[in-house]
Amino acid sequence: MRSDEAEDAEGERALGPQEMLGIIEAQRAAAARHFASPLPIFYVVWGLVWFLGYGAFFVRYGLSGRPDGPISLGAALAILFGTIGVALAISGYLGWKQGSQVRGTSQARGTMYGLTWFFGYMLVGAVCGHFGTLLPEAERTLLWCCASMMVVSLLFMAGAAVWNVRPMFYIGGWIAVVNVAGVMAGPGLHALFSAVGVGGAFVAAGAMVHLSTRLRPGRA
Q1: What is the pTM (predicted TM-score) of this model?
Q2: Mind telling me which residue stretches traverse the membrane in this protein (predicted)?
Q3: Structural domain harbouring 119
């Protein structure tokens, strides 16, 4: 009996510092892989939205910025909103899948952050819908696009500050730079800069996150 009790006591001994650190590091790495796993999909999907959606506007306006391209404004809008709808569905599923395993403060932050996007675009719709009627078609489209990009860039940087995610801040800053350059260049070039510069940045970010999680899973 005493030998059994000794074995039980030995099995239940307190873990040493190195063993505890190993367990903590393993759990941290597993959590990091879990939360980073949907990011490449998210980035690539939204990169395609920027490339296809704003690419359609570039085809519409061309380098001259005149609305005489081979596709109509309605077709360009259909491509943009169609790709956004697909991306929102995919993003919503990924967000639900991740959020279902998160509770407490993190969940509350995510909810407030999501509502901030809603109210941001509500303001864009109100402002651009009112003042856009005073502008020609190409300039009206530019107003909608640059205002939408402004919301995206600012909320990306704000989200980076909330969750301390530096790549997210860099992407938001890059979107702001592309937006300013495009506004100064005109409707056609704004669409081109957005499609190639922002769409390409999202796809590149997705590839980098994917590679980092595969090459350095413990530091994702």
Answers
A1: 0.77
A2: 41-59, 71-94, 115-135, 141-163, 168-185, 191-211
A3: 42-214
> Considering only CA atoms, which of 117, 182, 185 is closest in space to residue 154?
117
Listing DSSP states for 169-200 in one string gives HHHHHHHHHHHHHHHHH-HHHHHHHIIIIIHH
3-state DSSP call for residue 164? Answer: coil
In a domain, 4, yes or no: no
**Long-range CB contacts (< 8 A, 24+ apart) of 117-123?**
117/151, 117/155, 120/151, 120/154, 120/155, 121/148, 121/151, 123/151
The pLDDT of residue 173: 97
**Burial of residue 23 (number of CB atoms within 10 Å: 0-12, 13-18, 19+):** exposed
Burial 60-73 (b: 16+ CB within 10 A, else e): bbbeebebebeeeb
Q: How far apart are CA 29 and CA 213, in angstroms?
A: 10
Domain annotation covers residue 19: no
Does any domain span residue 27?
A: no
Q: Name the one residue in this structure whose structure tokens are 């109210």.
A: 119
Q: Looking at the 3D structure of the chain, how many domains does it have?
A: 1
Q: Which residues of the chain have pLDDT under 70?
A: 1-37, 97-106, 214-220
Domain-embedded: residue 20 = no
Amino acid at 25: E
Burial class (CB in 10 A: 0-12, 13-18, 19+), 205: buried
